[in-house]
Fold this sequence. Notes:
Elements: E1 6-10, H1 16-23, E2 27-33, H2 36-46, E3 50-52, H3 60-63, E4 74-77, E5 86-87, H4 108-119, E6 123-128, E7 136-139, E8 164-166, H5 167-177, E9 181-188, E10 199-206, E11 221-222, H6 226-229, H7 237-240, E12 268-269, H8 273-277, H9 304-310, H10 333-341, E13 347-349, E14 368-370, H11 403-409, H12 422-431, H13 435-450
Parallel strand pairs: 1-2, 1-4, 2-3, 4-6, 5-7, 11-12
Antiparallel strand pairs: 6-10, 7-8, 9-10, 13-14
Helix pairs in contact: 1-13
GO biological process, one term: negative regulation of gene expression via chromosomal CpG island methylation
Family: Belongs to the class I-like SAM-binding methyltransferase superfamily. C5-methyltransferase family.
Pfam families: DNA_methylase
Amino acid sequence: xxxxxxxxxxxxxxxxxxxxxxxxxxxxxxxxxxxxxxxxxxxxxxxxxxxxxxxxxxxxxxxxxxxxxxxxxxxxxxxxxxxxxxxxxxxxxxxxxxxxxxxxxxxxxxxxxxxxxxxxxxxxxxxxxxxxxxxxxxxxxxxxxxxxxxxxxxxxxxxxxxxxxxxxxxxxxxxxxxxxxxxxxxxxxxxxxxxxxxxxxxxxxxxxxxxxxxxxxxxxxxxxxxxxxxxxxxxxxxxxxxxxxxxxxxxxxxxxxxxxxxxxxxxxxxxxxxxxxxxxxxxxxxxxxxxxxxxxxxxxxxxxxxxxxxxxxxxxxxxxxxxxxxxxxxxxxxxxxxxxxxxxxxxxxxxxxxxxxxxxxxxxxxxxxxxxxxxxxxxxxxxxxxxxxxxxxxxxxxxxxxxxxxxxxxxxxxxxxxxxxxxxxxxxxxxxxxxxxxxxxxxxxxxxxxxxxx
Length: 454
């Protein structure tokens, strides 16, 4: 399938993981998701190889792409968050006969493994939420592998009835039963050049060999030192050093975005909210002055991240580049007043707000207000941002973040367009894998697993 390693993206969403894998050098040639808005956004940015379908109703041998088992390099995807209470038997071996109507989201990861079982990729990566680490399941039958396919290459551990087993260990057992060496890794996106603290769990497996990436070695960013905290934004070197062009400084200079390579001698301080969004023109919920939507830049990029995220083609001027998805949502005057009261990085639970100004009943709406701190990475961008935006208040403007600002904090470049309603765009952005984190994971797998598994 060409000189680039091939990849599929299951549960592809708006395409954040695909974007990262493409930056890492993969040819992502097939993707699937059941969400029409997600597939439309994916196709707008990556082409028509994504299909809209319920993966539970698909047969990889019939509905999947035309590639022989064993030829695929990487199978990637992020099944929706599972939550488990009990396990009767492993459902992997009975997936062909199960009823979609009787199923729910907590077994969708098994559909991911069903595709692994059919395509036999050289490697896979499955992304999920860190909350899975604290989930356990109670074994109700004698083993958790009674229904696994006959003739699997590895025997999984047997567990007695009533034993509480961590969910990740159950998943690793099922991956091992398919003949894969696998492990899971908890990664914070901020350590890989995303201006946001966002922890995600990645299961990585390989078909042959034992060595898996040590992602600690691939980190590019770190907690800042005390003196670095005093500078809320990194300034582009050519602005700071006169006629010294950034291109001459090299990719490991503090004024540029580092590439992904293991064991770098120096790691840069975390990227901050100011690094990411403070060049964008002001907008206002009132829609007067400033306007509610901005479609043009008014300032050049100030930080290296801003220059990278704008993705201006060589020879083009920043003033000629269109700006999309930068629109303010409406807020009532009480919310706007509360926004102004908050200091940088300050958060309130609704129940902590004075009853005289409290807008909601705290027993019904356990929500939070939080103004993002410009000198730190953003807090985790979640799909909840589509609801009201109280947890994502702009550092200097009395409003919540725009979709474009949220996308930047997820490491989507400005050329990545979300052709959806504002509410849908928020949801798709919040659910996405940060592309730069996907690039880091994809690069490590390509070098450590695919590079040695010939």
